[in-house]
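<amino_acid_chain>
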Amino acid sequence: MSSKLLAGKVALVTGAGRGVGKGIALELAAAGASVVVNDIGTSTTGEGADLNPAQTVVAEILAAGGQAVADSNSVADWDQAHAMVQTALDSFGRIDIVVNNAGILRDTIFHKMTREEYEMVINVNLNGVFYVSRAAAPHFKAQNGGSYIHITSSSGLVGNFGQANYAAAKLGVVALSKSIAMDMQRFNVRSNAVAPWAWTRMVNTIPAETEEQKKRVEGLKKLVPEKIAPFVAALASEGASAVTGQVFGVRNNEIYLFSQSRPIRTAHTSDGWTPESVIERVFPMFENDFYPLHRSGDVFTWDPV
């Protein structure tokens, strides 16, 4: 095992059976934390259940000399979210770190998206973050400390095609994280969001039909999910005690701090606005600063380093 930056801490990592979540669980354990490895083992679209991935990660942690238990509760259910926090308390006596990583995809172009496709993604990717975070909140408050790390996505921060449900959830996670940071600051509780770039089962669903798409997918395959974990471990530690309410990105060996929405232009009139004067004056004033309909790949155009 490596440095014991998180010795004595107890972490819950959702969706920790594979990909980014697995890398985070292993890294937190290597840093000395006891880890609840939560994963119900569904497909990328949320079907089925298989506890083997979570148990395999636990076995790997135990073999390396760490402490871990598997948990198969669903983040998309209030009672089960509380049950997974209880797993941490029953197994290790406390909870200090929550990593909200679990997520599913139901990619569909907006005008064809069904209510079920929308609600399933919102239930797991946004409601699940609230349920698990809320379940841990009284314990963080009582012990006057805790760290939330929520996995967001450039699909929400920038935009992507065919992901209205996923983008809405992931940008919602950013707002939820900021609200948690504000509301629980007085209890020494921190909350941050991290957007990971990594080749995982979920990214593997990206279509690769045109030459341009194939080139992008080949670039994405260079993104190693384990590269996300060291930053998350640092963010969970006391070394990040002053870091809260922020939005970060990790892409191989690059770490980003994202901007947050602030006014960039203003228009004022002493006479008040009419629809006609808005059209005549405001839109032309603002036009140069309008954001184009960028997708994530339009913004992050350079090869991973």
The domain at 10-260 is CATH 3.40.50.720 (Rossmann fold).
